[in-house]
Amino acid sequence: MDKKEETLEEMFTQLESVIKTMEQGDVSLEETFDLYHKGMNMLKSCNDKIDKVEKKMLILDDKGEAHEFEN
Predict the structure, then answer these.
(1) Does residue 1 sit within a domain?
(2) What is the pTM of this model?
(3) Which domain holds residue 64?
(4) In CA terms, which of 32, 44, 59, 67 is 20 to 30 Å from 26?
(5) What are residue 59's phi and psi, to 5 degrees?
(6) How many C-beta neighbours within 10 Å does residue 17 have?
């Protein structure tokens, strides 16, 4: 069975949870490093998803014609 791709909102919620856990200060140093690594991977996934969305975006010019979004 295929895993449903997470939305940006879901990914941000998970990332926020990781950050809150790290900020509590009652986790071991080893667990903090694991959480940091997990958070960085999640952040990279978020950035990749945002980049993918930007590449699909279209903008309308003054004449109402659609063009690809250029960053």
Answers:
(1) no
(2) 0.69
(3) 8-68
(4) 44
(5) -120, 155
(6) 13
Query: How high is the pLDDT of residue 42?
Result: 95
Other beta carbons within 10 Å of 22: 16
In sequence order, what are the beta bridge partners of 67? 59
In the chain, the number of structural domains is 1
Pair type for strands 66-68 and 58-60: antiparallel
Asked if residue 40 is part of any domain, the answer here is yes
Query: How far apart are alpha carbons 24 and 37 in whole angstroms?
Result: 17
Examine residue 2 and state whether it is found in any structural domain, yes or no: no
Domain assignment of residue 20, yes or no: yes
Distance CA 39, CA 71 (A): 26
Q: What is the rounded distance in angstroms from the CA atom of residue 32 to the CA atom of residue 35? A: 5
Sign, Cα dihedral of 27, 28, 31, 33? positive
